[in-house]
Amino acid sequence: MTGRARTTARGRARSREQEEQEAPGVPRAPESAAEPIQWQQIPRPLREEGPVVRPRQPRGEEVAAQSRGAKEPGLEAGLQTLSLQETRIGGVFQDLVVNTRRDMMHVKNSKTGSEGKVVQLIANHFRVISYPQGVAFKYNVDYKPDVEAGNLRQILLNQHIRKFGECHIFDGNSLLLPRPLRERKVEWVSTTEDKKIVKIVVEFSKELKPTSPDCLRFYNILFRKTFKELNLKQIGRHYYTKKIPLTEHRGTRLEIWRGYVTSILQYENSITLCADVNHKLLRIETVYDFISKIQAETDPENCKEEVAKRLIGSIVLTKYNNRTYRVDGIDWGQSPLDTFNKSDGTKITYIDYYKQQHKEIITVMTQPLLVSQGRWKKGQTDTQRRRILLIPQLCYMTGLTDEIRKDYTSMKDLAVKTKLSPERRHDALKEFMKTQALLRLWDFKFDSNLLSLQGRVLSNANIFQGRRMVQANASGEWAREVRGIPLLSPVPLHSWLLLYGRHCFAQAMTLEEHLRHVTAPMGITMRSAIMIEVAGDANSYTDILKKYTRSALQMVTTAPGHCCILRNITFVICILPTDDKRTYDHIKKYLCTTFPIPSQCVVKRTIEKVQARTIITKIAQQMNCKMGGALWKVETNVQRTMFIGIDCFHDIVNRQKSIAGFVASTNTELTKWYSECVIQDTGEELVKELRTCLKAALDVWCENESSMPRSIIVYRDGVGDGQLQALLDREARQMSTYLQAISNNFTLAFIVVKKRINTRFFLKRGSYFENPRPGTVIDLELTRSEWYDFFIVSQSVSEGTVTPTHYNVIYDTIGLRPDTVQRLTYCLCHMYYNLPGTIRVPAPCHYAHKLAYLVGQSICEKPNRSLSTLLFYL
Predict the structure, then answer these.
(1) From CA 310, how far away is CA 397, in angstroms rounded?
(2) Is 685 a catalytic site residue?
(3) Which of 379, 498, 621, 808 is the most exposed place for a label (fewest CB within 10 A)?
(4) For 804-834, how does the pLDDT look when each residue is reduced to its tens digit (9 = 90+)?
(5) What is 99-144 written as a DSSP string?
(6) Does residue 717 carry a catalytic annotation?
(7) 391: part of which helix (H) or strand (E)?
(8) 75 and 736 Cβ atoms separated by less than 8 Å
(9) Looking at 168, 249, 830, 849, which residue is catalytic?
(10) Fold exhibited by the domain 490-626
């Protein structure tokens, strides 16, 4: 999904429920070991590259259609186009329904695995046991002259409710009725409060089957209407019912609102309602209060810069219309006393506008105005947006301050309130489902019990470190099992720099001393560091580094009384006085581009912690990986297979270039990796230069292995269900075409990884509920018949409810059987070298995320190619 800020439930309607104008005259903001794999080549179609959806059409016109394309010359014969259905809601295309399973012959009859111990699970889904059995009738609704405000459109239509009945669903553009109107096209006349005449044209569009995606979308709108009937408070896109009071944290008053996220969808065997508990954290502090606090603490010359630094990119809430906005800028040249043109051409001040429109009184006349560019959407960078101007006094801060995030006690208190255990989450959802009155008009009934289904628990992978084989414990961890065992591939730490800021000498000595103790059992030979004191600002670190090159032989004066010869620097550690991002970014950019060498930045207070020895052990492991070593390997039972992870970073704060991270394994043991970044246009998700990345990865593979890989498995993170066809058309096609140009013996699989989902699973123990153990696979009931998909719970959590990960195999010429792809995916969750435990996604996928994030947040340009075979981004 989101980033990734997109609809959490497929097919959910965009809300058009508020009548108020946003801000001065601007548009609304959008809201165990097994047998080795027998590889089998299965022909798989790819569509011709082209537009995913047709251009936007005027409101009221139908755009649901089948998208067809010609096959590309040179690809395997007999290609068939994938089934693609487009739906448009309120002028915005929704998720595309793509049948990616249809042509995978190896899973055409069954996509269910059999490996593992069967367990009984409960999901946060309620089965729909009764719903309208007959067809529904969809009508397009057009207003002349056009009416933009969604609430006003509903009011004008309701003036004729006797003609179409109480039982109806209206989404702002279309009307769904259980019975047809007498005529296919009718015209009604409505009157606004100021006596203006509006003509409403209602024209028949089509009949909808009860299980059609379009009909299910209307049912989701209907369910959201029940929230309004129950007087739930709308904040942004979601509804909230219960306010949880909090004590003051670090001088900031907070409150938490608990609500629900729902979606009704057709799954494997039935329609279900997915319901999950949602929390919204609000600060009882206006943006004006926040600005005033910064002004009181900051030098007047730097005040505006500091306000912009701390405010731009944050999310604010306007309580007069319960909407959230991202702050994209601050207009210091305007104030509430300024005027703007209304839609009818008349001028009005911001003070009068908010008083008339929202009954809000502005008392501070000297405050600046906030600028919001509306919702940032991937793939819609060409859409013209007019800025939205907001009054700081009327906006409330959301989220946590940096001070609260750094305070353990405060974060612990918040976790208790927001991270619900499986037992508490189950009870909250049962209570929620007691209210269904409005749905009965449409004959909607839900099972009162949560959905029961079966899962399977896979055995943990065999992990090899040194000469020992271990397995993860019940929590998916093995740190204790490998304690004191040499690493799989230790790298000596000989010529290395240790730079430390002023007043950090004691911490530098502590770090080196602890490193000397923890590296010996790992098998790492370590010499004394070249320790150099710097001023502590960003430039002071790079100024020292500029004196050295990897080929230079120099005499360096170090800590008092020491003198060393430095040759071929292999690693740099920088101890930072504070966690200032600008200093970190400056150092990382220099050491990843100008002077490419693996590095580690450590904040002073980290070394001062009681558990510093444990932390420095992890730092030593990171250093070994960054220099090209390996900690452990996992038994996968596959040969000559390259695993690739792809993810993208989007700068939604500054809206800079997007960064695509590409990471590929370059040996059979999955202990060596190649990485590359692709810098793309802002908001661009699909990667255009995969051929270049793949070629470079294959070249590195051939340097490490005696022969080319036979199969390539790609784990793609960061894309939504609505991008599946585009992913096939562009990224999968790029790789398939390139591989076929090299040899016909290559096979390829593309797997979409989705973390941001609302589905949760509970393991029932007597009358209690707990989290499933790591390795739990679900490939029944809540999967889609059109997809080759499954869920895996691959990690454990100490607090709250664990979130599973959804996997969707959208392209496969390898012939991956369900047991094979599920076991492989879980094995790869053991291979992330930053943690001796299982993680939520396969390691190549998370490596790609770490790479893209580092480059996007700190480096902002391509790293030097000399680092491409090192895990420098850990």
Answers:
(1) 12
(2) yes
(3) 379
(4) 999 999 999 999 999 999 999 999 999 999 9
(5) --STT-GGGSS------SEEEEEEESEEEEEE---S-EEEEEEEEE
(6) yes
(7) none
(8) yes
(9) 849
(10) Rossmann fold (3.40.50)
